[in-house]
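Before the break, one more example. Copy the sequence into your notebook; we will annotate it together after we see the structure.
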Amino acid sequence: MLSVCVFCGSSVGNHPGYAHAAREAARLLVRKGCRIIFGGGHVGLMGVTADAALAAGGYVIGISPRILQEKEVVHRGLSELHVVDSVHERKVMMAGLADAFLVLPGGFGTLDELFEVLTLQQLTVHDKPVGVFNVNGFFDPLMAYLDHAVASGFLRRDCREMLMVDTDAARLLARVGVV
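Here is what the structure looks like once it is written out:
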């Protein structure tokens, strides 16, 4: 069974399309027989993703740092919940369990997770595909920045192309190997 780690926000954002996209991606992953690995929260797009996957009969693994458990934002209805000591340990465990990564809209934490797995891929620590679901153009400024980094000589073109970006969830999942 393919395991896909989903990075996304602990908020739902200010456009209903973000939550809709999270539900769509979760249902597609479940239909394709994938396990979902995520940060373990019941809030924001994390909660929306987990709830949609569970409602569709999916297997959802949450990995939460202890501090979030203490703040009572951890999802209690998951197939598996792992509580770890730090955010770093959470990222290591999520990456270790994942066969691929799917990124939805989010803030600092989402970008931190995205750039960590991309950096590890660039350094050939792993060769797991990374896809960004570009909902309502949310990631357009980030993609422009990455293109600027290439044009400015700070990022090689082949490294920029490691990141797959699409506005269609089904097409993106096929590109990252979920068929």
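The domain at 3-173 is CATH 3.40.50.450 (Rossmann fold). DSSP finds eight helices and seven strands in the chain. Try to locate both features in your own notes.
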